[in-house]
Design brief:
Two copies of one chain form a homodimer. Helix content of chain A is 32%, strand content 24%. With 432 residues, chain A is α+β, with helices and mostly antiparallel strands. In chain A, the strands form two sheets. In chain A, strands 1, 2, 3, 4, 5, 6, 7 and 8 form an eight-stranded mixed β-sheet that branches. Chain A has a six-stranded mixed β-sheet with strand order 12-11-10-13-9-14. Chain A starts with 30 loop residues before the first strand and ends in a 5-residue tail after the last helix.
Chain lengths: 432, 432
């Protein structure tokens, strides 16, 4: 992985030094824990708990795949308004595990409720009930869910709960939820709502949409702000389209994808009742920054990725049209291999535009690579300079821009190149 | 390329000896020619002519890409009922070439009409007019169309017209239309309609949907039967869905794809006025065999392909649903890399089914690899045998079968695996 994080928002600048992890801070009203339950044999953390002593409002978005993990089925069974705990396991996706998988979650929930009792008594926290628990699972599908290992380690998970977070604790949590990821993914933002400072911290995992057997994109976001579940849900849906739903590594969709945002209500900020007030837009922007940052980190960590690609469609009649064309380009193996080969092969971009099936005017469109116009007026640009383009294609972050000249809308999505390493990782995954 | 052609229709048998090219015979009423016009610098044949001295009925299907070659634009300009000549060039796709590309075809057509005059006079053939000519171009897009080189070589093309075809002549023609293909593609069938024997011969090119810059699937099919253009069109549309439209190498669609069938009317067979008579179904079956054979040869020659994959969806409510699920699997890079790695990774097949967005019942579906059931009843099959499956995955031709248990319909499509060679060919194509 050689992509430079700082370069993300700077398509037209040459790569500078590698970006460091952000400094994540304490979210009041959240306590966390991660232990090894022996799901992996090497002793790494593989079982995590995000615990809300006084409960949290929340919103969640699940995978669009019509086959889903039993953990998602379990979460959907109860409509929950107040969450006390999120339990995350790796190594096993709890998908295509049938009754055994679903019953396992009942057993684990029971064990967790039981284990928390003493801790909650001592601290005078409200008691956690089974229906206050959410699950998230990622790993191999179709294998028996390791309920006994997890149950056995729940007391250990509870006794390791930490009240406070700092940067290292956040990185530990982000690492505990990883599968084939090569690095943890964290993002952070803080803003003032009225005179109150509120914080947003997020962790994510995902690398390809797939690993280990096929797997999963998770993003868990936490804020200490006081925002209702209904309003959180509106923000999440607004932000998803241009962040987690705007990334593609290989066009495949996991059975386990899950993005959640939790609000612990500890900061008594000005109420965000509408989502169009000035304060509300400020929060939306901060949430969008955290989600954009995490999304891009997932793409950068795409299996075998060596380059980050932004596909930007401008001056479209509708956002939907721009989006369809953007993904037609971003999902094209031909374009992704050309970028891997540092070849400014704009003919393939043209193919990608046309293959979307959307009506465009070939005589009007302008195709740019970075700041270089490669095609316009229905033919190759008169300023086309192969040498400069080949130089540009060596950069770590490539911008493909298509101007449709049809309207006021635009859409931008993110992907990575297609390399030998992608083939290696995915051809031999189960055996490695 | 190690795929065994004989093994195509024999998924469950181990590969046997390599199949040989079919023995193609003379199609009366067709004359052919191929020369080097210096489009490639190495002197290979790159300009071809299929000539019908007494004209031919025809039907054609073009690419679904919304950006198309100027050659397709030219063909569409006149509604032609009687074709005298098809001119095929390689090396340049005549796409995104603007006015220069379109005007070039006028000039070439004029030159061809002129060059044919003497030949047609001598043989007392009807004169070819400009509107009797079809063009097909494949190669790099966006480069100036080499009109001068082609015009200069039209007289040579005409003086090399051969009245008779045999297997070697057919292979010469199939080779002259190649770009990155590693071998020519030919297919042949003959049947009796009433008491008359009729013949169907076809050539095709394509390897990826892409090469050289992005390129093209061509298939040109010829019969000596007497069938009207209207009826030919009905057959072509019926057969396309399960042949040329049932193959995918990398999910990309060229700007130049073109499938045509020509009938020279030389054999005075029983008229096929309906397309559901016994004779008509016989012809449809023979045409389907030729198209299926050519389609599979294109997949086998897929860029970097080492394995042929058949995806078969059975017991679906509708054909459309089966087709959507089949392509969701066949276009998945994760499944294609797993097959390249000889890994019986059925979890990814499950992901592919779900990602189609189609409603299925996870508890009902049965997934098979070859004759081995890998998943059923919502979980891994009790007969699952990793050792046997790993043995099966070593074969050159792999069958993925999904039984939806929802209805009477089915759909089958064909693809190949995703290997290092695909990346190599496509990352560096323009520079090689």
């Amino acid at each position: 992985m050689t992509i430079n994080l700082k370069n993300f928002l700077n398509f037209n600048k040459k790569p500078s030094k590698m970006g460091d992890f952000q400094e994540l801070k304490q979210i009041e009203g959240l306590q966390i824990s991660a232990v090894s339950a022996g799901l992996y044999s090497n002793g790494r953390d593989d079982l995590s708990l995000f615990y809300f002593p006084e409960g949290a409002n929340y919103a969640v978005a699940y995978t669009q795949n019509s086959i889903v993990s039993e953990s998602i089925t379990w979460n959907r069974k109860n409509t929950k308004n107040n969450i006390k705990a999120l339990v995350v396991n790796t190594k096993n996706a709890n998908t295509f595990t049938g009754e055994q998988g679903l019953n396992s979650l009942d057993e684990i929930a029971k064990t967790l409720v039981e284990s928390l009792k003493k801790f909650e008594n001592e601290n005078e926290y409200e008691k956690t009930k089974m229906k206050d628990i959410l699950f998230a699972s990622t790993g191999v599908i179709g294998e028996k869910f390791p309920v006994e290992k997890i149950k056995k380690n729940i007391p250990n998970l509870v006794s390791n709960i930490r009240v406070n977070q700092n940067k290292l604790i956040w990185l530990k949590m982000a690492t505990a939820i990883m599968t084939t990821d090569t690095k943890p993914k964290v993002a952070y933002s803080e803003i003032k709502l009225g005179d109150k400072k509120i914080r947003i911290a997020g962790v994510a995992k995902g690398s390809g949409m797939i690993a280990p057997n096929l797997a999963t994109m998770f993003s868990f976001i936490f804020t200490d702000a006081d925002i209702s579940s209904v309003v959180l849900n509106k923000y999440l849906n607004k932000v998803l389209a241009n962040t987690f739903n705007a990334i593609t590594v290989d066009s495949d969709t996991s059975t386990n994808d899950m993005v959640t945002i939790f609000a612990t209500k500890k900061i008594k900020n000005k109420k965000l009742n509408t989502i169009s007030s000035k304060e509300a837009l400020k929060f939306e922007k901060a949430l969008r920054n955290v989600c954009t940052d995490l999304s891009k980190q997932i793409v950068v960590d795409g299996e075998g990725a060596k380059k980050f690609i932004t596909v930007k469609i401008i001056n479209s009649e509708t956002v939907e049209k721009a989006k369809k064309i953007a993904f037609s380009i971003a999902n094209s193996p031909l374009i992704k291999t050309a970028v891997a080969g540092e070849d400014p092969n704009w003919g393939r971009i043209l193919m990608g535009i046309g293959k979307s099936g959307e009506k465009i005017d070939p005589k009007k469109i302008v195709i740019k690579l970075g700041e270089f116009t490669v095609a316009e007026n229905g033919k190759i640009s008169e300023s086309y300079n192969e040498e400069k383009l080949q130089e540009y294609m060596k950069w770590d972050s490539i911008l493909i821009e298509v101007d449709l000249k049809q309207g006021p809308e635009q859409y931008e999505c993110y992907t990575c190149d297609f390399t030998h390493d992608y083939i290696d990782i995915n051809a031999h995954y189960r055996r490695s």
